[in-house]
């Protein structure tokens, strides 16, 4: 424990308050000459790029959605790619009148950014995070009730900014499910299994967000070192799972004493990285860590972690999710969308949101770009060996380094599956 404390530094890793209130600024604040000496926080240059600021906003929506899902599933794994859901909501806002648009924009944190071209910037964000080298696929779709007449003034910008057209249900559940599955297979290149669940009845508006990611480490793991090892579900129960290992892994590391967790970041190809939050004790509740997650907090962590050499073990992972996130979204101050929204920019008929479906697959294995660490990475000199074993419940965040966008987030209580 004392050895770990040697790696604690001031700044973003000193807990939730200093990270979240700092909002990405490394300074105490500068004095505004027009005030009586009250410090004014300067905006981090990273967030002066419109696409980065938008990515932070929709990622904060994603962290909110994750918290709601996690609190509703306290004893189960949670896997989400919130960007696909955020994209569906952002696209839907094109058809909302002011009252309903304001509700959507508040949930997406658009009310905190001054960007007259939200949807044009979103198009840029999607192009960036789904570039071929990222290995990340994401798609969203709006499905409407049968025989609905949709205004062309809604369809045109939807296609322009989000690259998608709405789907009108036929009223035949089997045919509608088949069509949605075919669309999903085409978007995900067959990487996400077809859903076997029945089409819900009484649909007015159905939102669908799907995503797939298979990570490629910058430095691959030696498959000969992968072996079955214990994963501690809690203090008393263990399971045997395939664990990858690297006795001389280069990773970025920090200890957060306020959250009582060890944080590590591993780089992936395509300017992406995974940040792990590993509690110091297997019995520790993950809620405190979850409540701290914001775009700004993760951005600060990214700046503060130090490169070290460590003995690393990490479970091989392939997780999937196919289900509703409707209830979680209703609890995120979006209930009005399910009650009496105003979507008169879409159609003259009263319609409302009835269901939000999410399908996601996430996996990593030993695969990587090379066997040697990136040149130029100089680990900090330690006077003690450092171990980082993901052999107990943990949280991970997959982040696009270029934009800061949250692409996947997971709570892994049992790596054997969902």
Structural features, described:
This protein has 418 residues and is an alpha+beta fold. The protein has 2 domains: 46-215 and 319-363, Antithrombin, subunit I, domain 2 (Antithrombin, Chain I, domain 2, 2-Layer Sandwich), CATH 3.30.497.10; 216-317 and 368-412, Roll (Alpha-1-antitrypsin, domain 1). Helix content is 29%, strand content 29%. It contains 11 helices and 18 strands. The chain has helices at 2-5, 16-20, 50-72, 82-92, 98-107, 118-129, 152-162, 173-187, 287-292, 295-304, 326-339; strands at 30-31, 39-40, 78-80, 136-144, 167-168, 205-214, 217-219, 227-232, 238-256, 261-268, 272-279, 306-315, 317-324, 353-364, 368-370, 387-389, 394-400, 406-412. Strands 3, 8, 9, 10, 11, 12, 16, 17 and 18 form a 9-stranded mixed β-sheet that branches. Strands 5-4-6-14-13 form a 5-stranded mixed β-sheet. Strands 1-2 form a two-stranded antiparallel ribbon. Helix 3 (50-72) crosses helix 4, helix 3 (50-72) packs across helix 11 and helix 5 packs antiparallel against helix 11. The longest helix is centred in the first third of the chain and has 23 residues, at 50-72. The protein starts with a helix and ends in a 6-residue tail after the last strand. The model is unreliable at 1-40 (pLDDT under 50).
